[in-house]
Specification:
The chain is an all-alpha fold. It has 3 helices and no strands.
Length: 162
Amino acid sequence: MSIDPSFSILISFLGFCWIFAKKVYPMVTRKLDEHIEAVKQQIAEAEKLREEAAIALENAKKKESEIEDIIAENRIKSEEKIKRLHEENERLLKMLRERHEMSLKTQLEAEFVKQKNQLIDRLTNLILEKISERIEETGYKFSTSLKKEDLSKLLDTDKIIH
């Protein structure tokens, strides 16, 4: 009895296939299933992250829009405030100019009154001198000498000046 070498190769091959099918195939399929499951989990996790990123992007766009609205509103408020400040500044400048003009006017009037009084005093002294000279030239002798008050009463200088 001799076994044909082709038959023994066939038996060996079938034995190998049976061992492979019983031991190796389940192990390979289990590893492949685990790998498939891990990939599915990664895909699910990536999908979840993508959805979260989309929500975060949408929220960021809303925030950006809100911030742009706030900036625009603040810009308008700032421009209005600047306008009010300019108006207030102009009003204050006008008021300061008016006060300054009034102060200058008051100072000028005071200086005018001072100079008018000085001029009246000089004129009074000059008139007194001239009258005294005339009196001396004519030779009249008065018991009293003329004073500014007497001349003021005689001439009533306030009525002459005004």
